[in-house]
Amino acid sequence: MPVLVITGTGTEVGKTVTTAAVAAAALAAGRSVAVLKAAQTGVGPGERGDAAEVARLAGAVTTAEVARYPEPLAPATAARRAGRAAVRPQEVAEAAAKLAAEHDLVLVEGAGGLLVRFDEAGGTLADVAQQLRAPVLVVASAGLGTLNTTELTARELRSRELDLLGVVIGSWPAEPDLACRCNVADLPQVAGAPLLGALPDGAGSLPPAAFRAGAPQWLAPRLNGTWEAEAFTARQMPEPVA
């Protein structure tokens, strides 16, 4: 798995922190890692973007961006409003391939969800995964509504014959409600893919040393971690209604 594409079921689901955790776990396993942000929006020149945040949390990773735009909008819209060239899926794929030639693992982080448009032609992160023939990791939220968005994302991946590696819950609350606890069992069913981790709420606010120590405990062995989905699910399952 030299390249892994990481997408979310929407915005603010913990995609960047999950990318950092995957990177940290891979580094702890002795792998060299590069992080490629396909399109960084909402960040001005000289400001810290998502790839830099991954490096802050995870450690010694190579970081790169294909493009950045100042307004926090979908990449195609942000590019148009800024009067700049849009990101093309082929550019992202080529940048990832170059990094893959020099690293054990390249993490390609998208912007928002799988079908957020990069350009006016409708290019998306799904097109990048197709060109790279890379598996896709989906980051989902824990609570009510996540089953629908996760299944829609999984269906789109299957329709394109893309490999859905699994699902990671991007932020698991300290006190999960009933929906969160039930979703642990339902997410792999609607995705048709395994649950590969759950990051604790606030993980991105931890000191980098604590984040790096914790990352392998939040992710399954497929992502160089020690987290066990079966045990986690068993702890969360509520008692059935009498």
Describe this structure in words.
This protein has about 240 residues and is of the alpha/beta class. About 40% of the residues lie in helices and about 20% in strands. It contains 9 helices and 9 strands. The strands form 2 sheets. A 7-stranded parallel sheet has the order 4-2-6-1-7-8-9, with helices on both faces. A two-stranded parallel ribbon has the order 3-5. Strand 8 (about 165-170), helix 7 and strand 9 form a beta-alpha-beta unit.
Structural class: alpha/beta
Task: Extract low-pLDDT stretches.
Answer: none
Q: Strand arrangement, largest sheet? A: 4-2-6-1-7-8-9
Strand content: 15-25%
Number of strands: 9
Task: Give a brief description.
The protein has 242 residues and is of the alpha/beta class.
Quickly list its features.
two-stranded parallel sheet; 9 helices; alpha/beta; 9 strands; 242 residues; seven-stranded parallel sheet
Helix-strand blueprint:
Elements: E1 3-8, H1 15-28, E2 33-37, E3 40-41, H2 50-58, E4 62-65, E5 68-69, H3 75-82, H4 89-100, E6 105-113, H5 125-132, E7 136-140, H6 146-159, E8 164-172, H7 178-191, E9 195-200, H8 208-218, H9 229-236
Parallel strand pairs: 1-6, 1-7, 2-4, 2-6, 3-5, 7-8, 8-9
Helix pairs in contact: 1-2, 1-8, 4-5, 6-7
